[in-house]
Amino acid sequence: MKLVVALWLMTSFMAFGQVQVKNIEDFPSSDGVTGCGLSYWCWEHDLGTVGTSTGTSSLSGELRRFDVVWKYYGGERFHVYLGPAYKDSTSTAFTTDTWIYFNKLANVDNIEIDLNQVTANGDTVIYGLQCYFPKGVWMYVADRSGRPHWNESTVPCTRKMWTSGVWHHVILKYHRDSAGNVTYDSVNFDTTLSKFIGASGPSDYALGWGIGRLSVNFQIGGNKTFSGTTAYLKFLTVTGQ
After folding, report:
1. What is the pLDDT of residue 37?
2. What does the alpha-carbon distance between residue 170 and residue 187 come to, in Å, rounded to a whole number?
3. Which residue segment(s) compose the domain that 155 sits in?
């Protein structure tokens, strides 16, 4: 029943080659690991981070709430599969648009928003961007030696740009070619548009996922302290064409 209600709350359309899914925050919650093959928000500690983390997520009114506690640079990954109704193996350009709120940011090191797409050849293209406070820039994913690798861009993203207790509007744009090379186009942060320069590279991997699968990741990483935060998302929308 929760899934049916969530689907009612979402708006999507497919016209003129465009696919759009709105209000992704309204997808139902799992218990973290159950139902991840369906359209449920799931979460786990990112084993690619050196520390530890725990998290939970739930609907809070019309908002998607994320509670995270970490120790020594731990990162907690939240993710949702958009489901069989929104399969898309053909779109080559995407926009991810959302509003983000943090109750506190002093010990947050990175805020990551990714989109994964399984293309017609079965490879998963990762469109990965994170605001990385220690470097003060947006970082992007491109392959290095067969593995996803974070690369520094020239677009700033500093702790001073973000304010606790304030909603921030983030719009990310990127596109790919038929070989799985991703070009990161721009980030619009609170109506300030910044274009990436030279931010591109191969970013496709054989993960064995079903063709057309679309999924969104939202990850919060902490600094070396034992700390935590609460974040909210609203109006999370993915548009492909």
Report:
1. 86
2. 7
3. 2-240
